């Protein structure tokens, strides 16, 4: 059972749809057949709706890479050791992981948020200390965290988003790192969607049939143990979630509250998006989904959110890799919307 705590509220208004007809008319009047740029046209419409017609560019975008360790990582649900989370955070800060390469290519700033890893990290200019503990509890035995830890995670993310917004940022991209977090995310997906286990639980970083069976057993035990908590998204998150997942949910809600674009990465960040939208459906209008990855539950999860991803590349790395790769497409969407000549200007009539 969870004790009562002060509940943070987010005041989110959906993006203004008053100009939807004029946005569509503008798209259709450009120097191309209507709809010829496919999903890029819908992306441009979403960006203009979120940012407003006076903002013609993505400004000071930041990749927020949330890291956290999971109690279930010691229960045989992964092919790699729990210490890998700490090692990967070290490489993110050293600048030599894949996400660093992609962020440099996309002119995308990177911040790594330590939400609670087994080992603390030395201070670093790109590191944000939002530690909620050393790791979550194994959720098949007890709640992963307390409601106090969850609310602190929300508060931390809201403060961070407020600072970024004040500095001129109008887009955040989401990434994550945490050994065992596909198990947590799969449990959250199963609890929130009621889809079958074989839809929600995939191979994560790549596992053997024995490890897959262990993941399924742990998810089933967690859902059974916390059945009373699964009626509310907040208590579901506290029962089954990860420190980094909770912090991403808070970041999504805070960014939507500020009217910022949220570029979602893979399976785990999409689970965080689902949680955020269950808490505040108005947040959905601020989300753009970068890709559909190779994790088993990602496609049905995107369908739950009525999301059309920009890329299909078989990615299953996490780290925000798909979001960083997709950012240039968002820039291109705004560029063609504002820079392409009209049919009338070109002297053409379709």
- Order of neighbouring strands in the sheet with most strands: 3-2-1-4-5-6
* Alpha carbon gyration radius: 20 Å
Share of helix among residues? 40-55%
User: What is the β-strand count?
Assistant: 6
Poorly predicted runs: none
Report the biggest beta sheet as strand number plus sense, adding barrel if it closes: 6 strands, parallel
Order of helices and strands: HHEHHEEHEHHHHHEHEHHH
Strand proportion, as a percent range, falls in: 5-15%
Count of helical stretches: 14
Features:
six-stranded parallel sheet, 14 helices, 350 residues, alpha/beta
SSE layout and pairings?
Blueprint: H1 20-28, H2 39-51, E1 62-68, H3 84-94, H4 98-105, E2 109-116, E3 127-129, H5 147-166, E4 171-177, H6 181-193, H7 197-200, H8 209-225, H9 233-240, H10 243-257, E5 261-264, H11 267-279, E6 287-289, H12 298-304, H13 321-339, H14 343-346
Parallel strand pairs: 1-2, 1-4, 2-3, 4-5, 5-6
Helix pairs in contact: 1-2, 2-13, 5-10, 6-8, 6-9, 6-11, 10-11, 11-12
EC number: 2.4.2.21
Catalytic activity: 5,6-dimethylbenzimidazole + nicotinate beta-D-ribonucleotide = alpha-ribazole 5'-phosphate + nicotinate + H(+)
Active site: 319 (proton acceptor)
Characterization of this structure:
This protein has 350 residues and is an alpha/beta fold. 46% of the residues lie in helices and 9% in strands. The protein has helices spanning 20-28, 39-51, 84-94, 98-105, 147-166, 181-193, 197-200, 209-225, 233-240, 243-257, 267-279, 298-304, 321-339, 343-346, and strands at 62-68, 109-116, 127-129, 171-177, 261-264, 287-289. The chain has a six-stranded parallel β-sheet with strand order 3-2-1-4-5-6, sandwiched between helices. Strand 5 (261-264), helix 11 (267-279) and strand 6 form a beta-alpha-beta unit. The radius of gyration is 20 Å and the shape is globular. The termini are far apart. 50% of the residues are buried. It holds the Pfam family DBI_PRT. It catalyses: 5,6-dimethylbenzimidazole + nicotinate beta-D-ribonucleotide = alpha-ribazole 5'-phosphate + nicotinate + H(+). Its EC number is 2.4.2.21.
